[in-house]
Structures are given as structure tokens and as C-alpha cells.
Amino acid sequence: MSDILSKMTAALLAVLLLFAYPALQTAQRQEDIHYLAAYQAMVQFADAVRSKGYVSPVMYEEFIRQLEVGGGIHEVELEHRRKKYHPEYGDPANPNTFLNDFSVVYDAYYSPEILSVLFPEDKGGLPKERGPYKLQTGDYFSVTLTDHSRGPMDIFSDFLYGGPAPEISGLMTYGGMVLNEDY
User: Fold this and answer.
1) What is the C-alpha separation between 71 and 136, in angstroms, rounded?
2) Which candidate among 100, 131, 152, 174 keeps its CA 20 to 30 Å from the CA of 13?
3) How far apart are CA 100 and CA 27, in angstroms?
4) Of 135, 148, 123, 124, residue with least CA distance to 175
5) Which pLDDT value is given to residue 165?
């Protein structure tokens, strides 16, 4: 009886080692390639925006197309922080109390504002002209991607752990200071 039990255990272990482990490694590689493709598209887009000083509809559509080609479902969030200088006054109502100092304040604009400039809505039957969203040197621009897709690695993890695997962040952020105004 113990002979049969040990042979069954050995056969089960052999099946796991010959089929399940290579499939798990392949799924992990596929997930890594998917992550790297999305990260490369995000870096390429953000660097182009930072070096040109604007976001055009063509640039944005090409970025989205590259994400779709790489596979997966991504949520894209754009952020533009415009630098503004505000003078400091002892009494804001009296301009003669200027303190010879300026404070730096950032006004933030997010995806809805940026996309409404890139792709204006047709109101009143007159088509609006699509235009670039312009940034200024010294502003900050960043792109955040959230991956909402489920790949083979997620399915294997569900099977192995008996439920959802420990969440590894599907959040990627990249950006920086706008270096040029090329418009």
C-alpha cells in the first residue's frame, strides 16, 4: 500500500515539476514584458512632452495606441503643475507693504482639463479645432498608469494561493520638469 502511495506522490510531483513550474515561469516573463512595454511607452510619451513643451492630440493618441498594442487595460492619468510666483505683502490690501519676497505656488491640472483642450466637445453643432495643450518651461508634467488587466500570472496565483494573490502594485508614475517650449 505504501508503495502505491509513494508512486502516486512521485507522479504528482513529476507532473508539477514538468508542467506547472515552466508554465508559471512563462506567465511571470509575460507579465514582466507587458509591464516593461507599458513603462517604455509611458517614459517615451512623458519625455516627448517635457522636451517639446506641449501635448498634441496625435502624441496622446499614439501613446494610447502603444499601450493597447502592448495588451492589457490601463487607466491613464495626466497631471500638469504650473509654477506661479505670488508676491508677499505685509498687508494684502496695501501694495506699499511688499516684503521683497515671492512664494512659489503650483496650480494643478489633471486629465479632464488636459483632454478637454486636446479633444474639445462639439457643442452647438460647430466643430471646435483640436489644439495642443501648452506647457511652460519650469512646469511639471507626469503620467500615471494603473494596470487593471488580469493575465496568466494572476490566474496561476489565484490557483496556487486559493484566492487573489498578494497585490503587487500595478501603478507606474513617470514625469518631471518641462525643459523646453517648442511650439
Assistant:
1) 33
2) 152
3) 61
4) 135
5) 58
Query: What's the pLDDT tens digit per position in 51-96?
Result: 999 999 999 999 999 999 887 889 999 999 998 988 898 888 888 8
DSSP 8-state class, residue 93: T
How far does Cα 120 stand from its chain's mean position? 23
DSSP structure class, residue 108: E
Contact 82, 139 (CB under 8 A): yes
State the cell numbers at 40: 517604455
As a dihedral over the C-alpha atoms of residue 158, residue 160, residue 162, residue 168, rounded to 10 degrees, the angle is: -50
Asked if residue 67 lies in contact with residue 74, where contact means CB atoms within 8 angstroms, the answer is yes
In contact, 135 and 80? CB cutoff 8 Å: yes
- Listed in sequence order, the DSSP H helices in 16-151 are 21-52, 57-70, 111-118
The pTM for the full model equals 0.80
Q: Rounded to an integer, what distance in angstroms lies between the CA atom of residue 173 and that of residue 167? A: 17
Helices (H) and strands (E) in the chain, counts: 5, 6
Largest CA distance in the chain: 100
